[in-house]
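Structure ticket #2291
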Amino acid sequence: MQSWVKKIVSLGVCVPCRRAVIAAITALLLLPIEASEANWLTDAFKGSPKHSNASAHVAPSKRATSARRAALPKPHHVKVAALGPLGPSALKMVPSTCEPKKFRIVLDVGHTAESEGATSARNIPEFTFNLRLARQIEEKLKAEGFVETRLLVTEGKAKPSLFKRVAAANDLQANLFLSIHHDSVPNKLLEDWEFEGKKSHYSDRFSGYSVFVSRDNPDFKTSLSFAEMVAKEMKARGLQYALQYTLPIMGHYQHPLLDKEAGVYSYDQLVVLRKTRMPAVLLEAGSIINRDEELRMESPERRDIVSSAVVAATKDFCGPQEPFLGPP
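Resolution: structure written out below.
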């Protein structure tokens, strides 16, 4: 570059002109690689490789093209798990062998008749809500061709029942585990009121659905992938996710928010999520301790919205997926 500058100076060109010419040459020498080549990572995700203008003028021979095609592996359907931060092995490709008629989904009814979970603002046990919604999801999944869907209703006390669920799902060699629940709040946040002459408790402060996964699940990334699909289908139907799990006021019920757009949290210690040998997700369909939302959760219309969201997410989960990078 210095030799070019000396020549320009020796020509006796006016100083402003010389400066303009030197600036132009410098810009050309420092010009970066074409933007189309710099975008190779975006193109890789889109599956539409681009080429620079220079390579567009060099047409490969038919023989070379045929050789390259022969060397490529035969296409097959794959499922891309949701990913964490981009790294050397960021794209974990999980084979998709999902045929609806063979795909076994275990729908776990949260809690038991002996240990009913939370109590709603109007004194209805959570187990009643869970069983009713899980049955409707089962019915819709089977109607959509997922005939191997199994409804898991467990008996016994709370803690032993957790290990029973895990054992049953593992014995069934399920492809996917989904536990159905309805939400409440810690006891310290409850307020008193009277319903039908009986002392009851409520909290209208929080509402909404939430979806949980465990980072200790043996297939966490696929669990997260399905959880995001469920959450996004719920949101697409006009539902809002519960925000309180990020707040210190929740105490030991506070959980990291993995997907702030859709409402997916991690709940690493939960037995049914970490001990199952398949992708596992827990859905809190809505708050039954919130007096207004409890009435909505009681309605057939809300159960239809939630069950339709789960079915749509399951169908998406079984179809070929585009690569994506997990939670933002």
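Closing remark: The first strand starts at residue 78 and ends at 80.
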